[in-house]
From TrEMBL:
Any Pfam family: GSDH
InterPro entries: 6-blade_b-propeller_TolB-like, Glc/Sorbosone_DH, Quinoprot_gluc/sorb_DH_b-prop
Residues making up the signal peptide according to the UniProt record: 1-26
All copies of domain Glucose/Sorbosone dehydrogenase, residue ranges: 88-402
Entry keyword set: Signal
Region (Disordered): 27-70
Keyword Cytoplasm: no
Superkingdom classification of source: Bacteria
PROSITE patterns: PROKAR_LIPOPROTEIN
UniProt lineage: Bacteria, Bacillati, Actinomycetota, Actinomycetes, Micrococcales
Record's protein name: PQQ-dependent sugar dehydrogenase
Amino acid sequence: MRANGSSSRRARLTVAAGVAAAVLLAGCTGDDGGEPSPVPSASTATPETTERTEPTEPEPSSPTPEPGRVVVPEVRVNVTEVATGLPAPWGMAALADGTLLVSLRDERRLVVVDPASGAVEPVTGPGADDLRDGTVARGESGLLGVAVGPDGSAAPGEVFVYRTAADGNEVLRGTLAGRELSALTPIVQGIPAASTHDGGRLAFGPDGSLHVTTGDAQQRGAAQDAGALNGKILRVAVDGAPAPGNPDPASPVWSLGHRNVQGVAWDVTGRMLASEFGQETFDELNVVVPGGNYGWPDVEGVGGAGAGFVDPVVTWSTSDASPSGLAVTREGAYLAGLRGETLWRVPFASPDGGASADAFGAPQAVLTDRGRLRAVLVDPATPLGDDGSAVLYVLTNNTDGRGDPRDGDDRLLRVVVTPTG
């Protein structure tokens, strides 16, 4: 897919080199430029539970800052291995007891990971049976995002999951008591599904509404159709009805023109960010505004503002990112890169937010030696430091059919972020 605008402008706004390599992927449709091969089942593997602290990461090389980008002090990270043996993990959410709920895409299961001990426990009950029996795992589809209703929402502690069923993608709601999941109630159905481009991230916004990211499901034109659910970010109440304040009160659509968003998060100012896979040239970090049209399939990357589209604030070559999960701290956004095998930090250039590219500093690669990265979550049990320090949880994704698994993959990592200046 082409990107509108001049080639010189592309060169100024892309974060890293490698566009020529990305062009070799033309016509491919997966998040890495191809359909994944089947993943062998690892349901009988027993995850290791011994916590192991890794040495502090060396500062990786970062791309040359784009002209006009603010250079913000870098951060160091220290990595602790929390759990291993997770087969194709996809989403995670924090439970009230400090444990993490993790979805396993291909095995169609939920597990609970205790960050303190590394123990991994299966979720059981009628809801777990439904996920196993009613979820279709093929390519990028399967059991994807998971969210837990926050305190102050209309469903505190309730569990929400995004899965591919026989007739499309859907969002389900249930109650988790201990490790037993109740029968599930569909709240959003009829989201088109395909073997690739299924979106799948669930996240509660600051106002307590649930945001659902959907891919174009290989139907490019649907991303521009306000009446279609694919290629969108949806905003709904906990019963699945359009949330109050949506651009169209009768529609769940919050924004459109998306190819495949798999990460959404909010900063302390309430600004909403989203990470998005490009086709063959540019991956994107976007500031999402209500009713915004982000250009796909007419535009990939920048160049659409003149046509009424919203340009991304940061772009990468698709070989450098393929950004899935997204988390936000006081000082920046962190994107989990699949094909790029990198945790990217995009620092904020201003504490007051802003929706233009100059509100963001030059991106930095902060974790580069763990292979493919699928999801990243701010540890809710650790307060964000005023100096920018934070604790993140990161899921690797080397067993998803495209990676090169290492002994013990996949892993849940605890990443402590500390500013250097």
